[in-house]
Amino acid sequence: MKIPPYLKKGDTVAIVCTARKFMPEDAIPAKELLESWGLKIKLGATIGLDSCQLGGTDTERAADFQNMMDDDNIKAIWCSRGGYGTVRIIDMLDFTKFKKHPKWIMGFSDVTVLHSHANVERIATLHSIMPFTVPKAPEEVKETLRKALFGEHIEYKVPTVSYNVKGKATGEIVGGNLSILYSLLGSKSSLDMKDKILYIEDLDEYLYHVDRMMQNMKRNGYFDNVKGLIVGGMTDMHDNEIPFGQNAVQIITAIASQYNIPIAFDFPAGHMKDNRTLVLGSQVDFEVNDKEVKLIFKN
Fold first, then answer.
1. Which domains does the chain have, with CATH numbers?
2. What mean pLDDT comes out for the span 157-161?
3. Per-residue pLDDT at 248 exceeds 90
4. Which of 155, 181, 188, 288 has a C-alpha 20 to 30 A away from that of 35?
5. Residue 299 pLDDT exceeds 90
6. What's the whole-model pTM score?
């Protein structure tokens, strides 16, 4: 696994659109945050573009991201917001130079496409808040991103919940948005799950669809060699008029508990204010006990 160079004061971070549109004025809070850390900002050509839901056409978004990947002066690329659209450009990108000279890709939700593809290319990324979510992010959450970018030690200890499954594991943490991971199955961006600790989260899904995604991932052998499971926010779930009969925790537990692995629910990452940064591709120590969940990043 290649860990991109950590940032130092004076480095430049690019802000781009890979999915939903994002206006220059909306980038001001993120710009101020980066400047408070001693960093410079470059707004991509897609910031301010409007192509229905998207921040520019597929060609425009791919070209902007490619330019930032290949620009030696850019040390990190921050995706402005999620939504939908990143999968439309992933096969238009050339990672040749990026693999030789990696830099941090940052974001969550639809950015899971980039996290997964970068992991296949064996490059670490940051599952983190985005410029769109900066205004509502607590200071301690912003601080987790700063620590990750500057290479400071990160570890999380959070209270356990009664429906966790106890255990310990060490492995490489991967994952992101459940719906995106499901949509990537069978593609060249699909993760190799052997000896991995999987992190998942989701937003605004019907419970039966959560079950469908978990069942399909199980049938694809997704959980056969996983060493642990971390479940972040399963936020704003929906049910049908005739109830499905299980909530998100019960759906996930019914499948994941078959594999004799530690499982932590309600972890503070995902579509929530307490969206702490995860260094995807990093080796971690993961423990679930009676009192707390511990996640310690080792590189």
1. 12-149 (3.40.50.10740), 155-297 (3.50.30.60)
2. 97
3. yes
4. 155
5. no
6. 0.97
